[in-house]
Amino acid sequence: MAHNDADIVLRSKDEREFKVKFGIALMSETIKALASYPEEVEEQEEWNPPQSAIPLPPVEGNILEKVIEYCTYHSENQEAKEDERDAWDKKFAQVDDDTLFSLILAANYLDIKPLLDLTCKTVADYIKACKTPQEIRRRFNIKNDFTPEEEEEVRKENAWCEER
Length: 164
Description:
By secondary structure, the protein is mostly helical. The chain is 59% helix and 7% strand. It has a 3-stranded mixed sheet. A hairpin with a 5-residue loop joins strand 1 (7-11) and strand 2.
C-alpha cells in the first residue's frame, strides 16, 4: 500500500512532534480514526494522509517515543521468529513502574492491543511474583488503608483463596 510509506506527524501532550511512517502508526486504531483512514479498500486508494500534526493530548513525549519504538520494531520485524519478538518485548517492558503504567495508559488510549497486552502481562507477572498482599503493597508502593480488624474480616471472607 502506497500510504504505508507516507510520513505523518504525531504531537504529544508536551508539544513534541514525531514524524512516523503511516504504516507503523497503523498499529494504533486511535491514530487510524484520527487520520480518518477508511476501512474500505477502495476508499483507501483515494485517502490522503493528514498534512497537520495529529494531537495525542494524553500521551507525554517520552512515552510516545517508546510507543513508536514498539510499533516500529513490530512493523519491521513481522517475519522474525516468535522467540525473537518475545525476547525483544520482554526487554522492552523492563522499565521503571512510572514508565510501565504510562505505557499501559498510552496503549489503551491509542488502542494498540499487543502493547496493552504486553504491559499488563508485565504487571501481572510482577504481582504473581509476590507471595503476600504485603509484598504487593511494597512492590507497588500501595498504602494499606485497612484497620487490623477490617483486614482480618477480609481474610475470613476470602479464606477459600488461601486453600491450595
